[in-house]
Every structure is written in structure tokens, then in C-alpha cells.
Write a structure and sequence with these properties.
The protein is mainly beta and 348 residues long. The chain folds into 2 domains: 20-130, no CATH class; 133-347, Porin (Beta Barrel), CATH 2.40.160. Helices cover 10% and strands 63% of the residues. It is built from 2 helices and 24 strands. Strands 12-13-14-16-17-18-19-20-21-22-23-24 form a 12-stranded antiparallel barrel. A 5-stranded antiparallel sheet has the order 10-9-8-7-11. Strand 16 (189-199) and strand 17 form a beta hairpin. The protein starts with a helix and ends with a strand.
């Protein structure tokens, strides 16, 4: 009895797999192919045949029938989901949609057909790609010449990293300069800066920023800055970029002579990138920090202008001109420093 029951169950399963309704491709030459499943993308119908996979030119297909739900993409950009229906009318597809209505499409109406499983997997892949955080950046190592408060040469280091996703961008910048004149260290600088951008649209964002800086040139033991504001991206591609930022900053300084200063300033910032010559590119970053209490008498500003030429796929030769201006400095300290850097930049 048990053996008979098991035999009946196995026979039922095998019979269902054999006699289950299959998809059909009717060809122009009069042949009809019974296939397990199929989809049409590009110029070819990809079918799973019971003995393997088939690729059939779309122009060779006269009509199609599929008993399982598929996603039909139409030439006008819309899409419908449904399965084939048996009717007396002859069309390329007679599609029964979820409401029970039967709609008819000619071959010209269709741009592609995909299984529901494939379509859902593609949608999920796009969502995952949009939400994926990507790290990128560059590391610059080079030789530097400076004029202003010192007339010496030194080595410089700069690390710029960015984590970008659909909803936000996180920037980290580390820079350091080591310099000597007559074996005396007098031009050391170090700075770490971060900025978090929260995107409200493709072109607008809110940002929070912070930085800590040590500057032997300006005789500043520690400068800390906190800021927030709004930004707008005019365009941003791999080779072109234009971005503006506006905000407020709180700046605190502890100077070499023990004095301290705090200022509330506005922030006006611009970042620009443009290709020049053949493969070279020009980039610039300009920041203005006018003090609300004394705009002209206590202005801070810095600008960086770089010309980059590719050496390999992952490295550039970079020449940078940097200007740093501070209106209020200690006695004997010049307000403007000019830094020229030649460096090798490694991209990652």
C-alpha cells in the first residue's frame, strides 16, 4: 500500500513537470518551439530549452505565448505585467494583465520582455548600487617652495578621501608640511579637515564641517573651526565640476605668544575642475572667511590652484599654487604666504 502511494505521488510530480503548459515561440518559417522560459533583450530572444539554451533572432519570431507572468516593456517607455491569454484574435501577444483585461500588442509595440525574476533582480541591483558607499581619493607627495614669512624649501604631504553615496558625501583631508631654514624648523604645518554633505537633491546639499590646524608659519599653536551651511552643485562629472558653498563658521585660535581669539565668520567657497590641453586638468578651490564684526580688518582666505598631467592610469604629476591670507597676525608676521608645490599624486 505504501509503495503504491509513493508511486502515485512520483507519477503525479513527473506528469506535472512533463505536461505543464510551456512557453511557445512561433517562428516565421512555420516552426513552433516549446520552451521552459524565455526573454527578449536587444535583438535576440533568449530561451531555456529542455535540452539547453537557445538564442533566436527576434526578427525570426512571428508570435509568442507564455503562461507565466512576464514584464513587457513597450516602445513608448511604459511597461505592463501579465501572461498570455488564449483568444480568437491573432496578435503578436495577447496579454492578460492583473485586472483580467486582455490587451493586444504588435511586434513593433515591444522593446523588450523579461521574466519577473530577472526584472526584480535588476531593480534590486540598481537600488543596491545607488545606496552603495564608494571611497575614492588621492595621495600627494612632493617638494615645495614658499615665499612670505619664510624663504625655504620643504616636503609636503596631502591625503584627500571622499566617501560618496546617493544620500550623502563625507570628505576627509589630511595635510602636512615640514620645512627648515639653516637647520631650524620654522615652516611646519599640519591640518585635518572633515566635511559631511547631506544631499537634499541632485544639486543641493547641507553641510557640516570641522578642522584642526597647527601653523608654525603664522605662529598659531592651534586653530579649530566648526561650520555649517548650504551648497549647490552646478555640474559634477569625472572631468568637470563647479560647486558653491555658503555658511557660518566659528573659529578659535591659540597663538604662539599665549593669546587667544574667537571669531564668527561667514564662509564663501568655490570648487572648480576643468580639462585643459589634451589629458591635463585644472582645479581650483577658493575659501573666504569674512569676520562679521570686521569684514575687511579680519579677513581670512585661502586658495589652491592645481594643474595635473597623467603619468599612468593611477598617478598624476601635479603643480599647485596655494595662497593663504590672514589680515590679523602677530607682529612681524606677514599676512600673505605663497606656496608652490610639485608633487606626484596617486589616485585610488
Amino acid at each position: 500500500m505504501k509503495l503504491s502511494l509513493i508511486t502515485m505521488i512520483l507519477f503525479s510530480l513527473v506528469s506535472h513537470s512533463i505536461f505543464a503548459e510551456s512557453a511557445k515561440l512561433k517562428l516565421i518559417n512555420g516552426n513552433t518551439l516549446d520552451v521552459e522560459s524565455f526573454q527578449f533583450v536587444g535583438e535576440t530572444a533568449q530561451a531555456k530549452y529542455f535540452g539547453g539554451d537557445l538564442s533566436i533572432p527576434w526578427v525570426s519570431v512571428k508570435s509568442i505565448y507564455f503562461p507565466q507572468n512576464h514584464i513587457v516593456f513597450l516602445s513608448d517607455g511604459s511597461r505592463v505585467e501579465g501572461k498570455s491569454a488564449h483568444t480568437n484574435k491573432t496578435h503578436f501577444i495577447n496579454l492578460q494583465i492583473s485586472t483580467g483585461e486582455i490587451v493586444h500588442f504588435t511586434k513593433k509595440d515591444i522593446s523588450s520582455i523579461k521574466t519577473v525574476t530577472l526584472y526584480k533582480s535588476e531593480v534590486q541591483a540598481r537600488i543596491d548600487a545607488e545606496n552603495k558607499s564608494v571611497w575614492a581619493g588621492h595621495l600627494d607627495l612632493g617638494y615645495l617652495l614658499q615665499t612670505g614669512n619664510t624663504e625655504d624649501s620643504k616636503f609636503n604631504f596631502l591625503l584627500h578621501t571622499v566617501r560618496d553615496s546617493k544620500h550623502d558625501t563625507f570628505h576627509i583631508d589630511l595635510s602636512a608640511i615640514q620645512g627648515e631654514t639653516n637647520s631650524k624648523e620654522n615652516a611646519n604645518q599640519a591640518k585635518i579637515a572633515t566635511r559631511f554633505d547631506f544631499k537634499t537633491s541632485n544639486s543641493k546639499f547641507f553641510f557640516l564641517m570641522s578642522s584642526l590646524e597647527y601653523d608654525k608659519i603664522k605662529l598659531i599653536d592651534l586653530r579649530s573651526v566648526l561650520g555649517l551651511g548650504l551648497g549647490k552643485t552646478i555640474f559634477n562629472t569625472k572631468k568637470h565640476k563647479l560647486e558653491y558653498s555658503f555658511g557660518l563658521t566659528m573659529d578659535k585660535e591659540v597663538r604662539d605668544n599665549g593669546t587667544k581669539d574667537s571669531t564668527l565668520s561667514a564662509l564663501l567657497s568655490m570648487n572648480y575642475l576643468k580639462p585643459v590641453f589634451k589629458e591635463s586638468s585644472f582645479s581650483s578651490s577658493i575659501n573666504l572667511y569674512p569676520d562679521f564684526k570686521d569684514i575687511s580688518g579680519n579677513l581670512k582666505a585661502d586658495g589652491r590652484f592645481s594643474l595635473s598631467t597623467p603619468l599612468t592610469e593611477v598617478s598624476d604629476l601635479k603643480i599647485t599654487l596655494q595662497e593663504k591670507y590672514q589680515a590679523q597676525v602677530l607682529p612681524g608676521i606677514k599676512k600673505l604666504d605663497t606656496i608652490i608645490t610639485t608633487s606626484i599624486s596617486y589616485k585610488f
